[in-house]
Structure formats: C-alpha cells, structure tokens
C-alpha cells in the first residue's frame, strides 16, 4: 500500500513523483487546505475495514454466479462478476456486485462464490469489467 499526495489538474488527480501501475485501484480522500473531518465510531470502523481491504488486495474480488433465481435479468449463472467491498452489505449477508446493467447492486451472498485467479489474470479480469 502507498500513501501519496497529489493535486487535481484538468479534472484528474496527478500524484507527483509516483508512477502508478495501469489498472491500480486508488482511494481518494478530499479535504480543503486546513480542513479536518470527524467520523462516528461506525464510520471509523468502515473506513478501517476499507483500508484493510486495500492492504490485502480485497477491495474488489472476482466472483462466480452460482444462482440467479429472481435476478435472471441482472445475473447470469456460471458467469464471472466483480464484487466490491461493502462492510455494511456483508453484515446483512449480501454482496455488492457489478451486474449486467454495469451498475453495482446488492445480491444474496450465497448466490456468488469467490474465484481465486492468478494475479495477472485477476488484474486483466478487473480491468475488463
């Protein structure tokens, strides 16, 4: 994990002195010059869980759809999807998935199973999604 500071140039974040690998997942926290921010204990827990997901490379995962009953227009059985980290959804037994619409929605966790792919293939699948 890297922590870096950058600026916005023409609507894009530019991180000076850092070369980021193509397809890298980044998280951006914005603040004004002297601004601080406060979070509730629950928000802090979610933020720390998100940081942990980034550190372990689990902020996105590749999953295989095993069931689609009731969601046939959104999920296809035996198809790979990208799941996004969502601590709140996980607590409710759900998984946030980028479905056939191209948007992310919540689905029952038991409909999808994680797929362990070699790192290079995982990166290509995530870039194509």
**E-strand count:** 7
User: pLDDT below 50 for ≥5 consecutive residues: which ranges?
Assistant: none
Structural class: alpha+beta
CATH architecture: Roll
CATH superfamily: SH3 Domains
Per CATH, the class reads: Mainly Beta
Number of helices: 3
What percentage of residues falls in helices of 4 or more residues? 10-25%
Mean pLDDT: 82
- Radius of gyration over C-alpha positions, nearest whole angstrom: 17 Å
Fraction of residues in β-strands = 15-25%
Tell me about this structure.
- With 129 residues, the chain is α+β, with helices and mostly antiparallel strands.
- It has a single domain, classed as SH3 Domains (SH3 type barrels, Roll).
- 23% of the residues lie in helices and 25% in strands.
- It has helices spanning 41-55, 87-91, 119-128, and strands spanning 6-9, 12-15, 60-65, 80-84, 94-98, 104-108, 112-114.
- A five-stranded antiparallel beta sheet has the order 6-5-4-3-7.
- A hairpin with a 5-residue loop joins β5 (94-98) and β6.
- The longest helix has 15 residues, at 41-55.
- It is globular.
- The two termini are 23 Å apart.
